[in-house]
Amino acid sequence: MKSLVNGKFSNTVDIMDRGFLYGDGVFETLAVQQRRIALWPQHMQRLRLACEKLAIDFPGETLLIDEVKQLLASCHDDVTLRITLTRGVGQRGYRPAPNAVPSRIISLHEMLNTKLAKHNNYNETGINLRCCETRLAKSSLAGLKHLNRLEQVLAQSEWQPNEDIQEGLMLDYDDNVIEGTMSNVFIVKNNQLITPDLSHAGVAGVMRRCIIDTVHEHGIAIDESMVKLSCVKNADEVFVSNSVIGIWPVKYFDSKHWPAPGKLTTIIMQNIEIKNKISGLVI
Amino acid sequence: MKSLVNGKFSNTVDIMDRGFLYGDGVFETLAVQQRRIALWPQHMQRLRLACEKLAIDFPGETLLIDEVKQLLASCHDDVTLRITLTRGVGQRGYRPAPNAVPSRIISLHEMLNTKLAKHNNYNETGINLRCCETRLAKSSLAGLKHLNRLEQVLAQSEWQPNEDIQEGLMLDYDDNVIEGTMSNVFIVKNNQLITPDLSHAGVAGVMRRCIIDTVHEHGIAIDESMVKLSCVKNADEVFVSNSVIGIWPVKYFDSKHWPAPGKLTTIIMQNIEIKNKISGLVI
What we know:
Two copies of one chain form a homodimer. By secondary structure, chain A is of the alpha+beta class. Chain A is 30% helix and 29% strand. Chain A has nine helices and 17 strands. Chain A has helices spanning 18-22, 40-54, 61-72, 112-120, 122-125, 150-156, 206-217, 229-233, 263-278; strands spanning 3-5, 8-9, 12-14, 25-33, 36-37, 79-86, 103-110, 127-131, 167-171, 177-180, 184-189, 192-196, 222-225, 237-242, 246-253, 256-257, 281-282. In chain A, a hairpin with a 2-residue loop joins strand 1 and strand 2. Chain A starts with a strand and ends with a strand. Strand 3 (12-14) of chain A pairs antiparallel with strand 3 (12-14) of chain B, so a sheet runs across the interface.
Protein backbone atom coordinates (compact mmCIF):
# COMPACT_ATOMS: atom_id res chain seq x y z
CA MET A 1 0.00 0.00 0.00
CA LYS A 2 1.44 3.33 -1.04
CA SER A 3 -0.79 5.66 0.95
CA LEU A 4 -1.54 6.71 4.50
CA VAL A 5 -4.93 8.10 5.49
CA ASN A 6 -4.74 9.74 8.91
CA GLY A 7 -1.60 7.80 9.70
CA LYS A 8 -2.96 4.37 8.74
CA PHE A 9 -2.18 2.41 5.59
CA SER A 10 -5.32 2.81 3.50
CA ASN A 11 -6.37 3.86 0.02
CA THR A 12 -9.87 5.06 0.80
CA VAL A 13 -11.57 8.06 2.39
CA ASP A 14 -15.03 8.38 3.89
CA ILE A 15 -17.70 9.51 1.40
CA MET A 16 -18.57 12.17 4.00
CA ASP A 17 -15.06 13.62 3.92
CA ARG A 18 -15.54 17.23 2.93
CA GLY A 19 -12.67 16.91 0.49
CA PHE A 20 -14.94 14.60 -1.47
CA LEU A 21 -18.27 16.35 -0.71
CA TYR A 22 -17.17 19.88 -1.66
CA GLY A 23 -13.47 19.91 -2.58
CA ASP A 24 -12.99 21.40 0.91
CA GLY A 25 -9.24 20.95 1.27
CA VAL A 26 -5.78 21.68 -0.09
CA PHE A 27 -2.87 19.69 -1.50
CA GLU A 28 0.79 19.71 -2.48
CA THR A 29 2.57 17.63 -5.11
CA LEU A 30 6.27 17.09 -4.40
CA ALA A 31 9.13 15.56 -6.34
CA VAL A 32 11.20 12.90 -4.55
CA GLN A 33 14.52 12.26 -6.31
CA GLN A 34 17.35 10.20 -4.90
CA ARG A 35 15.68 10.26 -1.49
CA ARG A 36 15.53 14.04 -1.41
CA ILE A 37 12.15 15.83 -1.34
CA ALA A 38 12.69 18.94 -3.40
CA LEU A 39 11.53 22.31 -2.09
CA TRP A 40 10.09 20.80 1.10
CA PRO A 41 10.18 24.05 3.18
CA GLN A 42 8.50 26.00 0.38
CA HIS A 43 5.75 23.36 0.03
CA MET A 44 5.18 23.41 3.77
CA GLN A 45 4.96 27.20 3.75
CA ARG A 46 2.25 27.19 1.07
CA LEU A 47 0.36 24.32 2.73
CA ARG A 48 0.38 26.14 6.06
CA LEU A 49 -0.87 29.34 4.42
CA ALA A 50 -3.61 27.49 2.53
CA CYS A 51 -4.80 25.80 5.75
CA GLU A 52 -4.82 29.15 7.49
CA LYS A 53 -6.94 30.78 4.78
CA LEU A 54 -9.44 27.92 4.84
CA ALA A 55 -9.35 27.67 8.65
CA ILE A 56 -8.25 24.03 8.52
CA ASP A 57 -5.96 23.03 11.42
CA PHE A 58 -2.44 22.41 10.09
CA PRO A 59 -1.31 19.05 11.54
CA GLY A 60 2.27 20.22 12.06
CA GLU A 61 5.37 19.58 9.99
CA THR A 62 6.81 16.96 12.35
CA LEU A 63 3.82 14.66 11.94
CA LEU A 64 3.88 15.08 8.16
CA ILE A 65 7.62 14.30 8.01
CA ASP A 66 7.12 11.18 10.17
CA GLU A 67 4.38 9.89 7.90
CA VAL A 68 6.26 10.72 4.70
CA LYS A 69 9.31 8.87 6.06
CA GLN A 70 7.14 5.87 6.93
CA LEU A 71 5.78 5.75 3.37
CA LEU A 72 9.14 6.25 1.72
CA ALA A 73 10.94 3.73 3.95
CA SER A 74 10.53 0.88 1.52
CA CYS A 75 10.62 2.97 -1.63
CA HIS A 76 13.90 3.72 -3.36
CA ASP A 77 12.57 4.95 -6.69
CA ASP A 78 12.12 8.54 -7.69
CA VAL A 79 8.44 9.26 -7.06
CA THR A 80 5.86 11.98 -6.82
CA LEU A 81 4.43 12.57 -3.36
CA ARG A 82 0.98 14.03 -2.82
CA ILE A 83 -0.05 15.49 0.53
CA THR A 84 -3.75 16.31 0.85
CA LEU A 85 -5.31 17.98 3.87
CA THR A 86 -9.09 18.28 4.06
CA ARG A 87 -11.55 19.64 6.59
CA GLY A 88 -12.31 16.02 7.51
CA VAL A 89 -15.49 14.00 7.82
CA GLY A 90 -18.53 16.16 8.31
CA GLN A 91 -22.24 16.38 7.86
CA ARG A 92 -24.01 17.41 4.71
CA GLY A 93 -24.26 21.19 4.34
CA TYR A 94 -21.63 23.73 3.37
CA ARG A 95 -20.97 25.11 6.85
CA PRO A 96 -17.86 23.53 8.40
CA ALA A 97 -18.59 21.89 11.75
CA PRO A 98 -16.83 23.77 14.58
CA ASN A 99 -15.31 20.49 15.85
CA ALA A 100 -14.12 19.17 12.47
CA VAL A 101 -11.00 16.98 12.62
CA PRO A 102 -8.94 17.46 9.43
CA SER A 103 -7.98 14.47 7.28
CA ARG A 104 -4.41 13.82 6.07
CA ILE A 105 -3.86 11.76 2.94
CA ILE A 106 -0.27 11.08 1.91
CA SER A 107 0.36 9.03 -1.21
CA LEU A 108 3.21 8.01 -3.51
CA HIS A 109 2.87 7.96 -7.28
CA GLU A 110 5.00 6.98 -10.23
CA MET A 111 6.79 9.91 -11.77
CA LEU A 112 4.80 9.41 -14.95
CA ASN A 113 4.91 12.95 -16.24
CA THR A 114 8.54 13.33 -15.39
CA LYS A 115 9.45 10.00 -16.93
CA LEU A 116 7.63 11.00 -20.05
CA ALA A 117 9.22 14.42 -19.96
CA LYS A 118 12.69 12.96 -19.49
CA HIS A 119 12.07 10.53 -22.31
CA ASN A 120 11.03 13.44 -24.46
CA ASN A 121 13.67 15.69 -22.95
CA TYR A 122 11.37 18.70 -22.76
CA ASN A 123 13.76 20.51 -20.41
CA GLU A 124 16.26 20.57 -23.27
CA THR A 125 14.17 20.53 -26.43
CA GLY A 126 11.38 22.81 -25.26
CA ILE A 127 7.61 22.39 -25.57
CA ASN A 128 4.71 23.46 -27.74
CA LEU A 129 2.23 25.69 -25.92
CA ARG A 130 -1.41 26.33 -26.85
CA CYS A 131 -3.94 28.88 -25.63
CA CYS A 132 -6.91 27.41 -23.71
CA GLU A 133 -10.50 28.55 -24.08
CA THR A 134 -11.31 27.73 -20.45
CA ARG A 135 -10.80 30.85 -18.35
CA LEU A 136 -9.62 31.18 -14.77
CA ALA A 137 -12.05 32.92 -12.46
CA LYS A 138 -11.27 35.59 -9.90
CA SER A 139 -11.08 34.07 -6.45
CA SER A 140 -10.44 35.11 -2.87
CA LEU A 141 -8.43 31.84 -2.72
CA ALA A 142 -6.08 32.92 -5.53
CA GLY A 143 -2.57 31.56 -5.08
CA LEU A 144 -3.64 28.52 -3.06
CA LYS A 145 -3.58 24.94 -4.28
CA HIS A 146 -7.03 23.81 -3.15
CA LEU A 147 -9.12 20.84 -4.26
CA ASN A 148 -11.47 22.83 -6.53
CA ARG A 149 -9.65 22.17 -9.79
CA LEU A 150 -12.38 21.79 -12.43
CA GLU A 151 -11.00 24.72 -14.44
CA GLN A 152 -7.72 22.84 -14.92
CA VAL A 153 -9.55 19.60 -15.76
CA LEU A 154 -11.59 21.39 -18.44
CA ALA A 155 -8.54 23.20 -19.81
CA GLN A 156 -6.49 19.99 -20.19
CA SER A 157 -9.47 18.33 -21.88
CA GLU A 158 -9.28 20.87 -24.69
CA TRP A 159 -6.55 19.01 -26.57
CA GLN A 160 -5.88 15.34 -27.22
CA PRO A 161 -2.91 13.41 -25.78
CA ASN A 162 -1.77 12.48 -29.29
CA GLU A 163 -1.39 16.14 -30.29
CA ASP A 164 2.15 17.47 -29.98
CA ILE A 165 1.18 19.98 -27.28
CA GLN A 166 2.66 19.83 -23.80
CA GLU A 167 0.98 22.69 -21.97
CA GLY A 168 -1.95 25.11 -22.28
CA LEU A 169 -1.92 28.78 -21.38
CA MET A 170 -4.86 30.03 -19.30
CA LEU A 171 -6.27 33.58 -19.22
CA ASP A 172 -8.69 35.21 -16.82
CA TYR A 173 -11.98 36.78 -17.97
CA ASP A 174 -10.22 40.14 -18.48
CA ASP A 175 -7.82 38.57 -21.02
CA ASN A 176 -4.85 38.57 -18.65
CA VAL A 177 -2.46 35.65 -18.98
CA ILE A 178 -2.39 33.89 -15.59
CA GLU A 179 -0.61 30.55 -15.84
CA GLY A 180 -0.39 27.16 -17.54
CA THR A 181 -2.87 24.38 -16.73
CA MET A 182 -0.30 22.79 -14.39
CA SER A 183 2.52 25.35 -14.37
CA ASN A 184 3.45 29.00 -13.98
CA VAL A 185 4.63 31.13 -16.86
CA PHE A 186 7.71 33.35 -17.24
CA ILE A 187 8.55 35.73 -20.06
CA VAL A 188 11.93 37.20 -20.93
CA LYS A 189 11.97 40.57 -22.71
CA ASN A 190 15.12 42.71 -23.08
CA ASN A 191 16.91 40.66 -20.41
CA GLN A 192 14.15 41.32 -17.91
CA LEU A 193 11.77 38.72 -16.50
CA ILE A 194 8.01 39.06 -16.23
CA THR A 195 5.61 36.62 -14.57
CA PRO A 196 1.86 37.14 -14.18
CA ASP A 197 0.51 38.71 -11.01
CA LEU A 198 -1.48 36.02 -9.18
CA SER A 199 -3.32 38.15 -6.65
CA HIS A 200 -6.72 37.53 -8.28
CA ALA A 201 -6.41 34.08 -9.88
CA GLY A 202 -4.08 31.12 -10.35
CA VAL A 203 -1.86 28.93 -8.20
CA ALA A 204 1.33 30.47 -6.83
CA GLY A 205 3.70 27.63 -7.62
CA VAL A 206 6.46 26.65 -5.25
CA MET A 207 8.90 26.46 -8.18
CA ARG A 208 7.72 29.93 -9.28
CA ARG A 209 8.64 31.26 -5.82
CA CYS A 210 12.01 29.52 -6.05
CA ILE A 211 12.70 31.04 -9.49
CA ILE A 212 11.75 34.55 -8.31
CA ASP A 213 14.09 34.21 -5.30
CA THR A 214 16.94 32.84 -7.43
CA VAL A 215 16.60 35.59 -9.99
CA HIS A 216 16.65 38.21 -7.21
CA GLU A 217 19.84 36.70 -5.80
CA HIS A 218 21.47 37.13 -9.21
CA GLY A 219 20.37 40.74 -9.53
CA ILE A 220 18.14 40.09 -12.53
CA ALA A 221 15.04 42.29 -12.64
CA ILE A 222 11.72 40.46 -12.35
CA ASP A 223 8.31 42.01 -12.56
CA GLU A 224 5.11 40.38 -11.20
CA SER A 225 2.47 42.18 -13.22
CA MET A 226 -0.55 41.93 -15.52
CA VAL A 227 0.48 40.13 -18.71
CA LYS A 228 -1.41 40.18 -22.01
CA LEU A 229 -1.18 37.58 -24.80
CA SER A 230 0.74 40.04 -26.98
CA CYS A 231 3.42 40.13 -24.30
CA VAL A 232 3.87 36.36 -24.65
CA LYS A 233 3.95 36.53 -28.44
CA ASN A 234 6.53 39.34 -28.45
CA ALA A 235 8.75 37.73 -25.82
CA ASP A 236 12.42 36.95 -26.39
CA GLU A 237 12.08 33.74 -24.36
CA VAL A 238 9.17 31.97 -22.64
CA PHE A 239 9.24 29.14 -20.11
CA VAL A 240 6.87 27.34 -17.76
CA SER A 241 7.65 25.78 -14.38
CA ASN A 242 6.34 23.54 -11.65
CA SER A 243 7.99 21.67 -8.82
CA VAL A 244 7.80 18.26 -10.52
CA ILE A 245 8.81 19.12 -14.09
CA GLY A 246 11.22 21.92 -13.13
CA ILE A 247 11.51 24.31 -16.07
CA TRP A 248 10.27 23.66 -19.60
CA PRO A 249 11.36 26.21 -22.21
CA VAL A 250 8.64 27.05 -24.76
CA LYS A 251 9.71 26.55 -28.37
CA TYR A 252 6.38 27.27 -30.06
CA PHE A 253 3.24 29.29 -29.31
CA ASP A 254 0.65 30.74 -31.70
CA SER A 255 2.80 30.66 -34.91
CA LYS A 256 5.81 32.04 -33.04
CA HIS A 257 8.98 29.90 -32.81
CA TRP A 258 11.79 30.33 -30.29
CA PRO A 259 15.11 28.54 -30.09
CA ALA A 260 14.80 26.67 -26.78
CA PRO A 261 16.13 26.99 -24.17
CA GLY A 262 16.93 30.71 -24.49
CA LYS A 263 20.00 32.34 -22.97
CA LEU A 264 18.47 33.65 -19.73
CA THR A 265 16.28 30.53 -19.38
CA THR A 266 19.44 28.39 -19.50
CA ILE A 267 21.09 30.41 -16.73
CA ILE A 268 17.99 30.13 -14.54
CA MET A 269 17.68 26.38 -15.20
CA GLN A 270 21.28 25.81 -14.17
CA ASN A 271 20.86 27.75 -10.96
CA ILE A 272 17.60 26.00 -10.07
CA GLU A 273 19.18 22.61 -10.70
CA ILE A 274 22.04 23.39 -8.32
CA LYS A 275 19.63 24.67 -5.67
CA ASN A 276 17.46 21.57 -5.97
CA LYS A 277 20.44 19.28 -5.52
CA ILE A 278 21.54 20.83 -2.27
CA SER A 279 18.26 21.86 -0.65
CA GLY A 280 15.08 20.02 0.22
CA LEU A 281 14.41 17.34 2.81
CA VAL A 282 16.66 14.26 2.81
CA ILE A 283 14.77 11.12 3.80
CA MET B 1 -25.04 1.05 5.90
CA LYS B 2 -26.82 3.96 4.28
CA SER B 3 -24.75 4.35 1.14
CA LEU B 4 -23.96 2.57 -2.11
CA VAL B 5 -20.70 3.13 -3.94
CA ASN B 6 -20.88 1.79 -7.48
CA GLY B 7 -23.79 -0.43 -6.48
CA LYS B 8 -22.14 -1.95 -3.40
CA PHE B 9 -22.85 -1.10 0.22
CA SER B 10 -19.86 0.99 1.25
CA ASN B 11 -19.07 4.31 2.85
CA THR B 12 -15.67 4.93 1.28
CA VAL B 13 -14.21 6.00 -2.04
CA ASP B 14 -10.73 5.49 -3.46
CA ILE B 15 -8.29 8.32 -2.66
CA MET B 16 -7.59 8.36 -6.42
CA ASP B 17 -11.21 9.05 -7.26
CA ARG B 18 -11.12 12.29 -9.20
CA GLY B 19 -14.06 13.54 -7.17
CA PHE B 20 -11.65 13.60 -4.24
CA LEU B 21 -8.49 14.58 -6.16
CA TYR B 22 -9.96 17.58 -8.01
CA GLY B 23 -13.69 17.88 -7.26
CA ASP B 24 -14.16 16.37 -10.71
CA GLY B 25 -17.83 15.41 -10.48
CA VAL B 26 -21.41 16.54 -9.92
CA PHE B 27 -24.16 15.92 -7.39
CA GLU B 28 -27.83 16.29 -6.56
CA THR B 29 -29.53 16.60 -3.18
CA LEU B 30 -33.11 15.34 -3.13
CA ALA B 31 -35.90 15.41 -0.55
CA VAL B 32 -37.63 12.09 0.21
CA GLN B 33 -40.93 12.59 2.03
CA GLN B 34 -43.49 9.89 2.66
CA ARG B 35 -41.70 7.64 0.18
CA ARG B 36 -41.92 10.19 -2.60
CA ILE B 37 -38.72 11.69 -4.09
CA ALA B 38 -39.65 15.26 -4.88
CA LEU B 39 -38.77 16.74 -8.28
CA TRP B 40 -37.06 13.54 -9.45
CA PRO B 41 -37.39 14.26 -13.21
CA GLN B 42 -36.00 17.78 -12.76
CA HIS B 43 -33.04 16.49 -10.72
CA MET B 44 -32.31 13.87 -13.38
CA GLN B 45 -32.47 16.51 -16.10
CA ARG B 46 -29.88 18.71 -14.36
CA LEU B 47 -27.65 15.73 -13.51
CA ARG B 48 -27.71 14.57 -17.13
CA LEU B 49 -26.86 18.08 -18.35
CA ALA B 50 -24.02 18.44 -15.83
CA CYS B 51 -22.55 15.08 -16.88
CA GLU B 52 -22.78 16.11 -20.51
CA LYS B 53 -20.95 19.39 -19.90
CA LEU B 54 -18.18 17.63 -17.98
CA ALA B 55 -18.08 14.71 -20.44
CA ILE B 56 -18.83 12.20 -17.66
CA ASP B 57 -20.88 9.20 -18.86
CA PHE B 58 -24.37 9.38 -17.33
CA PRO B 59 -25.11 5.93 -15.86
CA GLY B 60 -28.76 6.00 -16.91
CA GLU B 61 -31.87 6.76 -14.89
CA THR B 62 -32.96 3.11 -14.57
CA LEU B 63 -29.77 2.12 -12.75
CA LEU B 64 -30.02 5.13 -10.44
CA ILE B 65 -33.66 4.35 -9.62
CA ASP B 66 -32.78 0.69 -8.89
CA GLU B 67 -30.02 1.72 -6.50
CA VAL B 68 -32.10 4.41 -4.80
CA LYS B 69 -34.91 1.85 -4.28
CA GLN B 70 -32.42 -0.61 -2.81
CA LEU B 71 -31.20 2.00 -0.32
CA LEU B 72 -34.66 3.20 0.61
CA ALA B 73 -36.11 -0.31 0.94
CA SER B 74 -35.54 -0.47 4.68
CA CYS B 75 -35.96 3.24 5.34
CA HIS B 76 -39.37 4.68 6.13
CA ASP B 77 -38.31 8.05 7.49
CA ASP B 78 -38.25 11.28 5.57
CA VAL B 79 -34.63 11.68 4.45
CA THR B 80 -32.31 13.62 2.22
CA LEU B 81 -30.80 11.66 -0.66
CA ARG B 82 -27.49 12.62 -2.23
CA ILE B 83 -26.48 11.31 -5.64
CA THR B 84 -22.85 12.00 -6.60
CA LEU B 85 -21.34 11.11 -9.97
CA THR B 86 -17.60 11.55 -10.48
CA ARG B 87 -15.19 10.90 -13.31
CA GLY B 88 -14.04 7.85 -11.37
CA VAL B 89 -10.68 6.54 -10.25
CA GLY B 90 -7.84 7.95 -12.29
CA GLN B 91 -4.19 8.82 -12.27
CA ARG B 92 -2.68 11.98 -10.91
CA GLY B 93 -2.79 14.85 -13.40
CA TYR B 94 -5.70 17.03 -14.45
CA ARG B 95 -6.33 15.40 -17.82
CA PRO B 96 -9.22 12.90 -17.62
CA ALA B 97 -8.19 9.42 -18.79
CA PRO B 98 -10.00 8.49 -22.02
CA ASN B 99 -11.15 5.19 -20.49
CA ALA B 100 -12.34 6.60 -17.14
CA VAL B 101 -15.21 4.67 -15.54
CA PRO B 102 -17.44 7.10 -13.60
CA SER B 103 -18.20 6.50 -9.91
CA ARG B 104 -21.73 6.58 -8.44
CA ILE B 105 -22.22 7.39 -4.78
CA ILE B 106 -25.76 7.31 -3.42
CA SER B 107 -26.33 8.10 0.23
CA LEU B 108 -29.14 8.77 2.70
CA HIS B 109 -28.96 11.49 5.32
CA GLU B 110 -31.11 12.73 8.15
CA MET B 111 -33.25 15.67 7.19
CA LEU B 112 -31.38 17.81 9.68
CA ASN B 113 -31.87 21.16 8.02
CA THR B 114 -35.48 20.47 7.27
CA LYS B 115 -36.17 19.19 10.78
CA LEU B 116 -34.57 22.32 12.15
CA ALA B 117 -36.45 24.45 9.67
CA LYS B 118 -39.77 22.79 10.55
CA HIS B 119 -39.03 23.21 14.23
CA ASN B 120 -38.34 26.87 13.58
CA ASN B 121 -41.12 27.07 11.03
CA TYR B 122 -39.13 29.21 8.62
CA ASN B 123 -41.57 28.52 5.80
CA GLU B 124 -44.18 30.36 7.83
CA THR B 125 -42.24 32.84 9.94
CA GLY B 126 -39.64 33.81 7.38
CA ILE B 127 -35.86 34.12 7.74
CA ASN B 128 -33.17 36.71 8.34
CA LEU B 129 -30.85 37.17 5.38
CA ARG B 130 -27.31 38.62 5.41
CA CYS B 131 -25.01 39.75 2.62
CA CYS B 132 -21.84 37.64 2.22
CA GLU B 133 -18.39 39.05 1.51
CA THR B 134 -17.35 35.94 -0.45
CA ARG B 135 -18.09 36.53 -4.13
CA LEU B 136 -19.15 34.05 -6.78
CA ALA B 137 -16.79 33.82 -9.74
CA LYS B 138 -17.72 33.71 -13.40
CA SER B 139 -17.63 30.16 -14.68
CA SER B 140 -18.22 28.23 -17.86
CA LEU B 141 -19.87 25.70 -15.54
CA ALA B 142 -22.44 28.22 -14.27
CA GLY B 143 -25.78 26.62 -13.48
CA LEU B 144 -24.34 23.18 -12.71
CA LYS B 145 -24.09 21.59 -9.27
CA HIS B 146 -20.50 20.34 -9.40
CA LEU B 147 -18.17 19.31 -6.57
CA ASN B 148 -16.13 22.56 -6.53
CA ARG B 149 -18.01 24.27 -3.72
CA LEU B 150 -15.38 26.19 -1.74
CA GLU B 151 -17.11 29.51 -2.41
CA GLN B 152 -20.22 28.25 -0.59
CA VAL B 153 -18.10 26.82 2.25
CA LEU B 154 -16.37 30.18 2.74
CA ALA B 155 -19.64 32.10 2.50
CA GLN B 156 -21.38 29.98 5.16
CA SER B 157 -18.32 30.34 7.40
CA GLU B 158 -18.87 34.10 7.52
CA TRP B 159 -21.47 33.91 10.28
CA GLN B 160 -21.83 31.78 13.40
CA PRO B 161 -24.53 29.14 13.92
CA ASN B 162 -25.73 30.94 17.06
CA GLU B 163 -26.50 34.13 15.14
CA ASP B 164 -30.13 34.47 14.11
CA ILE B 165 -29.30 34.34 10.39
CA GLN B 166 -30.61 31.59 8.16
CA GLU B 167 -29.14 32.38 4.77
CA GLY B 168 -26.49 34.55 3.10
CA LEU B 169 -26.83 36.43 -0.17
CA MET B 170 -23.96 36.06 -2.64
CA LEU B 171 -22.89 38.58 -5.29
CA ASP B 172 -20.54 38.20 -8.24
CA TYR B 173 -17.47 40.43 -8.72
CA ASP B 174 -19.57 42.94 -10.71
CA ASP B 175 -21.93 43.45 -7.73
CA ASN B 176 -24.77 41.46 -9.24
CA VAL B 177 -26.87 39.45 -6.80
CA ILE B 178 -26.62 35.79 -7.88
CA GLU B 179 -28.09 33.50 -5.22
CA GLY B 180 -28.04 32.38 -1.59
CA THR B 181 -25.27 30.14 -0.24
CA MET B 182 -27.58 27.12 -0.60
CA SER B 183 -30.62 28.57 -2.34
CA ASN B 184 -31.88 30.70 -5.22
CA VAL B 185 -33.39 34.12 -4.70
CA PHE B 186 -36.68 35.60 -5.91
CA ILE B 187 -37.87 39.20 -5.67
CA VAL B 188 -41.42 40.50 -5.98
CA LYS B 189 -41.87 44.09 -7.18
CA ASN B 190 -45.22 45.51 -8.34
CA ASN B 191 -46.70 42.01 -8.62
CA GLN B 192 -43.90 40.93 -10.94
CA LEU B 193 -41.23 38.36 -10.13
CA ILE B 194 -37.51 38.77 -10.73
CA THR B 195 -34.81 36.15 -10.22
CA PRO B 196 -31.11 36.59 -11.02
CA ASP B 197 -29.80 35.51 -14.40
CA LEU B 198 -27.48 32.54 -13.80
CA SER B 199 -25.75 32.35 -17.16
CA HIS B 200 -22.36 33.43 -15.73
CA ALA B 201 -22.40 32.19 -12.13
CA GLY B 202 -24.45 30.28 -9.59
CA VAL B 203 -26.36 27.00 -9.37
CA ALA B 204 -29.62 26.75 -11.30
CA GLY B 205 -31.73 25.15 -8.60
CA VAL B 206 -34.27 22.49 -9.42
CA MET B 207 -36.80 24.25 -7.18
CA ARG B 208 -36.02 27.52 -8.96
CA ARG B 209 -36.93 25.87 -12.27
CA CYS B 210 -40.12 24.50 -10.71
CA ILE B 211 -41.09 27.95 -9.40
CA ILE B 212 -40.45 29.59 -12.79
CA ASP B 213 -42.61 26.97 -14.53
CA THR B 214 -45.40 27.27 -11.94
CA VAL B 215 -45.43 31.04 -12.17
CA HIS B 216 -45.63 30.84 -15.98
CA GLU B 217 -48.59 28.47 -15.71
CA HIS B 218 -50.41 31.06 -13.61
CA GLY B 219 -49.70 33.88 -16.04
CA ILE B 220 -47.53 35.83 -13.59
CA ALA B 221 -44.66 37.72 -15.25
CA ILE B 222 -41.15 36.58 -14.26
CA ASP B 223 -37.93 38.13 -15.38
CA GLU B 224 -34.54 36.34 -15.28
CA SER B 225 -32.17 39.29 -15.29
CA MET B 226 -29.24 41.05 -13.64
CA VAL B 227 -30.22 42.03 -10.11
CA LYS B 228 -28.48 44.65 -7.94
CA LEU B 229 -28.58 44.84 -4.13
CA SER B 230 -30.82 47.92 -4.32
CA CYS B 231 -33.39 45.78 -6.12
CA VAL B 232 -33.49 43.40 -3.13
CA LYS B 233 -33.72 46.25 -0.64
CA ASN B 234 -36.57 47.92 -2.54
CA ALA B 235 -38.51 44.71 -3.11
CA ASP B 236 -42.11 44.23 -2.01
CA GLU B 237 -41.36 40.59 -1.11
CA VAL B 238 -38.23 38.42 -1.14
CA PHE B 239 -37.93 34.65 -0.84
CA VAL B 240 -35.29 31.95 -1.27
CA SER B 241 -35.76 28.37 -2.43
CA ASN B 242 -34.12 24.99 -2.75
CA SER B 243 -35.46 21.50 -3.29
CA VAL B 244 -35.01 20.40 0.33
CA ILE B 245 -36.25 23.48 2.22
CA GLY B 246 -38.87 24.47 -0.36
CA ILE B 247 -39.53 28.21 -0.05
CA TRP B 248 -38.37 30.43 2.82
CA PRO B 249 -39.82 33.96 2.81
CA VAL B 250 -37.31 36.62 3.85
CA LYS B 251 -38.47 38.78 6.77
CA TYR B 252 -35.30 40.83 7.26
CA PHE B 253 -32.35 41.98 5.16
CA ASP B 254 -30.02 44.96 5.67
CA SER B 255 -32.29 46.99 8.02
CA LYS B 256 -35.33 46.31 5.87
CA HIS B 257 -38.27 44.37 7.38
CA TRP B 258 -41.00 42.57 5.44
CA PRO B 259 -44.13 40.87 6.73
CA ALA B 260 -43.49 37.23 5.78
CA PRO B 261 -44.72 35.45 3.80
CA GLY B 262 -45.91 38.10 1.37
CA LYS B 263 -49.07 37.84 -0.74
CA LEU B 264 -47.52 36.57 -3.97
CA THR B 265 -45.03 34.39 -2.06
CA THR B 266 -47.97 32.70 -0.29
CA ILE B 267 -49.70 31.92 -3.61
CA ILE B 268 -46.49 30.45 -5.05
CA MET B 269 -45.84 28.39 -1.89
CA GLN B 270 -49.33 26.90 -2.03
CA ASN B 271 -48.96 25.95 -5.68
CA ILE B 272 -45.52 24.44 -5.17
CA GLU B 273 -46.79 22.42 -2.22
CA ILE B 274 -49.61 20.96 -4.32
CA LYS B 275 -47.19 20.14 -7.17
CA ASN B 276 -44.75 18.46 -4.80
CA LYS B 277 -47.49 16.29 -3.33
CA ILE B 278 -48.61 14.88 -6.65
CA SER B 279 -45.36 14.74 -8.63
CA GLY B 280 -41.96 13.15 -8.05
CA LEU B 281 -40.96 9.50 -7.95
CA VAL B 282 -42.88 7.19 -5.63
CA ILE B 283 -40.65 4.49 -4.11
